[in-house]
Structures are given as C-alpha cells and as structure tokens.
Specification:
alpha+beta, 2 domains
Length: 289
C-alpha cells in the first residue's frame, strides 16, 4: 500500500496560505508574541462583538472609555451598555505598540480615526486602563486661548494636589512646558517632551510630533498670537513607577470642554510627556469667549 507523503513545498504553500488568511492585527500578535498585543487583540475582537464577559475580564478597576464625541464612561457604565468601538474589529488599521515598564500604549488608526489603549501591569496580568478615541478635525475651534497671553492655570496654580514625589515632579514639568507654550518658547518646552512624542486632537487634522509642535511655537513667536493653554478642571494620576497615566478635563477660554489622556515617562531622571490624546466633548455646552 502506498502512503501519501506531502512534499516540503506543499507544506510551505499551505502554511503560507493559512497565514495570509489571518487578519493583519493577528499576524502582528503571532509574530511578536507580546502579552500586551495578545490581550489587546482579544479586547478589540470582544468589544467589536459586544462580548461583555470577555471585555470585563480585560478591564482594570479604574478603566475609562472616551469615545470620539468626548463622552467618558467608567468600567461599570460601559459594561452596562457596551459602546461600539469607532474602528470596529480594526481590520486594515495601523497598529503600533510602545511599552514603558509596567505601562504599554497601543495606538490604532484608520483614516481620520485614532484610538489609544493604555494597558497597565497588575499582579493578575495586563489590564486595560484607558480607551480613548479621537476623530481628527472634528472641532474647528482651537483649544488654546487664541487671544490669551497670560497663563495662571495650569502654569502657576492647579485644582489638583500631588500625592507623591513623582506627581510633584510631573506637575513641575507640565507647568514648565505649558509656560513655554504660553511664551512661544520652544527651547523651554522641548526638554519636557519625549522625542517620540505624539499629540492627537479633535482640533487638528493630523497627528503632531515634537518637531511639529516646535514649528508651531516658532511660528506663533513670529506672529505674537496668544496661545495660553486651556485651564485644568480636574485630573487623575495613576502611578506605575517610571510611567504615570494622567487623565484630565480642561475647559478652554472659549468653546467646549476637552477630555485629555496623557502618558508621562521618566527618562534619565526627568519626567517627559510621551503621548497626548485630546477629544472635545461634543454634548457639553460651549463657553462664550
């Protein structure tokens, strides 16, 4: 009796065909074998299928979800009525991961929609702390004070009391960079920003890098236009050693309030901002100028 033995070439073809059938996001997981990306993939698929039980198993107790309209909900609220993710199952999305010790950021994008997911390492494993959507170009009015040239809050005073040394250092860094923004001083702003910094906002039509922001500050310095940052209304900080997650509510001098998620990292003994996602709260009333 003859036995059929598949050729090596046939095996390779079958394996390659199977791999091509796997979604791009899943291929990245298989290649990387990162626990963060594995959990992230599971969360994305579960959320897109409204699988509350699976989503619940991956969420941190302090989890918050901010959608593209700026609506922010807690873990309990979203599990009562699971929102529909802006990118669905994220087929065809560009996915990037950054890991900073006990904190990892996964950034996904397709067209003008961007999603930030911040994962944190707990004793039980990686859990999702922040889910934040931004639809670029959603808000035409800039968040900063276009005619304001002095900055009291957040540059000098804040409605937030730091709880430890790390938070004190982060606030000092933040106030220094915002003072640099107010004064159009790129040299004063730059040391407090990571080289891989990225900012996304409802008021911008594209992501901004560190170089982009320096260019804007230099241009504002030439024109002399006021650009005081939006005052802080409230904040939360989550400390994970050399990484701190900061979620904030800001009220611009005019217009609607903004929900902001920031990631701070400690490099060479100094705290620098690495990521900033800013979403205008569409349902909130606008403050008159």
């Amino acid at each position: 009796m003859r036995r059929y033995v598949p050729s090596v070439f046939a095996i390779i073809v079958v394996a390659a065909t199977a791999l091509l059938a796997v979604p791009a996001h899943r291929v990245a997981v298989l290649a990387d074998e990162s626990p963060v990306l594995q959990n992230d993939h599971e969360f994305v698929q579960a959320a897109s299928k409204a699988d509350k039980a699976k989503v619940a198993s991956l969420l941190d107790s302090d989890f918050s979800w901010t959608d593209a309209d700026g609506k922010t909900q807690s873990r309990t609220e979203i599990l009562n009525s699971l929102p529909t993710p802006a990118l669905g199952s994220e087929a065809g999305a560009d996915v990037q991961q950054r890991t900073y010790g006990l904190v990892a950021a996964v950034m996904s994008a397709r067209d003008k929609t961007y999603v930030l997911r911040i994962w944190v390492k707990r004793p039980a494993g990686w859990r999702l702390l922040v889910y934040h959507e931004v639809a670029l170009g959603r808000q035409s009015v800039p968040h900063s004070g276009a005619a304001v040239k002095d900055c009291e809050n957040p540059c000098k005073t804040l409605p937030y009391k730091p709880r430890n040394e790390a938070e004190q250092a982060i606030i000092a860094s933040w106030q220094a960079l915002e003072t640099g923004v107010t004064n159009h001083d790129a040299a004063a702003w730059s040391p407090h920003i990571a080289d891989d910094f990225v900012m996304l906002s409802s008021a911008n039509d594209h992501p901004l890098s560190k170089a982009d922001r320096i260019g804007t500050l230099n241009l504002q310095k030439q024109t002399g236009v006021g650009s005081a940052p939006s005052p802080l209304v409230s904040a939360q900080m989550f400390d994970f050693g050399d990484s701190v997650v900061m979620t904030c509510l800001h009220q611009p001098y005019s217009g609607k309030p903004v929900h902001v998620s920031r990631l701070w990292i400690k490099r060479e003994g100094h705290w620098v901002m690495s990521i900033s996602y800013q979403t205008t709260i569409q349902a909130a009333p606008a403050k008159a100028s």
